[in-house]
Write a structure and sequence with these properties.
Mean pLDDT: 95
CATH topology of the largest domain: Aminopeptidase
GO molecular function: allantoate deiminase activity; metal ion binding
CATH superfamily of the largest domain: Zn peptidases
Number of domains: 2
Helix content: 25-40%
CATH architecture of the largest domain: 3-Layer(aba) Sandwich
Number of helices: 13
Cofactor: Zn(2+); Mn(2+)
Structural class: alpha+beta
Subunit structure: Homodimer.
Keywords: Hydrolase, Manganese, Metal-binding, Zinc
Low-confidence stretches: 422-430
Largest sheet: 9 strands, mixed
Radius of gyration: 23 Å
InterPro entries: Amidase_Cbmase (IPR010158), Bact_exopeptidase_dim_dom (IPR036264), Peptidase_M20 (IPR002933)
């Protein structure tokens, strides 16, 4: 091992403490702008304090942990990810990227290495939109892009506004609403985010690491409904029904066909109906359902594919309204823009993986990540996936520490190159 190996003992300790602080009896819950996420931020800040790093928070309470460089005015190298989780999720989604960055900096600190430019690990707030119906809250706020409407969004469980949660923890929602930016694209050399893979590709193909080519954008209907008419299940003949469930089932079936046709035509996208439910108080075994709620999540790296699938959604729904005597109420929409990863950074990640013998492959990210915000602001951006059994957003995330060590070494090598460290243990002279 070289003198600049990442501190993997620290990484294991951080993972263990994060789990201890946020285990809910079933999985991991680090609630956005709540006690769970805050405990994680406090832990990482204390770790940075112990290492002698600079600690800064912005108006949205994003956390910046910096090893100062020789030239404090040069654009900074940045890595990191989010520290919140979905309810009853896993311990590694998001947190792995922050822990990896801290392990790299800890190794440098203990080796006495000072980079040519600042290197910052960012603990991003509020990436998981399961809590608030807004994509990339923390990273958008960091660039001054989060508007007043987003701050008014209510958390799914507490029904308190985002601004209220932020203020309670000591943030400044007024400054966020004014668009006061903590980050400027021209002040950043790059952003590299390490993250567990959230699907089965790397495990299935036998690769350890994935170098992300692009991040999918999304178009979402979070609170849609089909409104029909309740009727007696025995007394209402088929031709006299306005059955909301049948209308929605037909929509789902026809959109599966549309999705298949689009894939055959070369489109790359996904379509998901993640929630479908009738009113527990009104629906009944002996009633024709007059209302059903659902959500739609469309994702693609191509905005044209997003628009085309949404056109199918709206066109088919209009036909079904006439055929079934129902009405589709779509509610508010939300979504995010696709993002392309920097080709030079992709090549550097592949080269670093090759150098340590870690099998890697190029692949898209179907899930959204804060790296998309950085890329769309013009910052050279890359993502490194590390394989993970059992997917993510569930308690069974299973990150092998040998794989994580390989990924952290690759991350450290690329950060070092960008920060002015020519090779392990040898800083470039200023």
């Amino acid at each position: 091992m070289t003198m600049m190996e990442p501190d993997m003992a620290l990484a294991e300790s951080l993972f263990a403490q994060l789990r201890a602080d946020s285990f809910d009896g079933v999985g991991i819950t680090r609630d956005t702008y709540g006690p769970g996420e805050q405990a994680a931020h406090d832990l990482l800040a204390q770790t940075a304090r112990d290492l002698g790093l600079e600690i800064r928070r912005d108006a949205a309470l994003n956390l910046y942990l910096t090893l100062p460089g020789q030239d404090r005015q040069a654009p900074a190298v940045m890595t990191g990810s989010h520290l919140d989780s979905v309810p009853r999720g896993g311990n590694y989604d998001g947190a792995a990227g922050v822990v990896a960055g801290m392990a790299v900096l800890a190794g440098w600190v203990r080796a006495g290495v000072r980079p040519a430019r600042d290197v910052t690990v960012m603990g991003v707030r509020a990436e998981e939109s399961a809590w608030f119906p807004v994509s990339y809250v923390g990273s958008k706020a960091a660039f001054g892009l989060l508007d007043a409407a987003a701050l008014a969004a209510r958390r799914a469980d507490t029904q308190r506004a985002l601004s209220d949660h932020l203020a309670t923890l000591g943030g400044n929602p007024q400054a966020v609403a004014r668009g006061e930016a903590a980050l400027r694209p021209e002040a950043l050399d790059c952003f590299v985010e390490l993250h567990i893979e959230q699907g089965p590709v790397l495990i299935g193909e036998g690769d350890t690491l994935g170098v992300v080519t692009g991040i999918c954008g999304s178009h979402r209907y979070r609170q849609a409904q089909v409104l029909g008419r309740y009727a007696h299940s025995g007394a209402a003949p088929r031709g006299h029904r306005s059955d909301a469930v049948v209308a929605l089932a037909t929509l789902i079936a026809r959109l599966q066909d549309a999705w298949r046709d689009m894939e055959a035509a070369g489109h790359e996208l996904t379509l998901t109906f993640g929630q479908v439910y009738t009113d527990a108080q009104q629906a009944d075994f002996s009633k024709v359902p007059g209302q059903v709620s659902f959500c739609v999540d469309i994702r693609s790296r191509d905005t044209n594919s997003l628009r085309q699938m949404d056109a199918h959604v709206q066109g088919i729904a209009a036909e079904l309204e006439a055929a079934h005597g129902v009405r589709f109420d779509w509610g508010a929409t939300s979504g995010s823009q696709p993002a392309i990863m920097d080709e030079r950074l992709q090549a550097a990640l592949h080269a670093a993986a090759d150098a340590i013998g870690a099998p890697s492959r190029s692949m898209p990210s179907g899930a959204g990540h804060d790296a998309a915000t950085f890329s769309n602001q013009g910052v050279p951006t890359a993502m490194l996936f590390v394989r993970n059994a059992h997917g993510s957003h569930n308690p069974d995330e299973a990150l092998d520490m040998r794989d994580f060590t390989a990924a952290t070494r690759v991350l450290g090598q690329v950060l070092g190159l960008r920060a002015g460290i020519a090779r392990a243990g040898a800083p470039i002279a200023s």
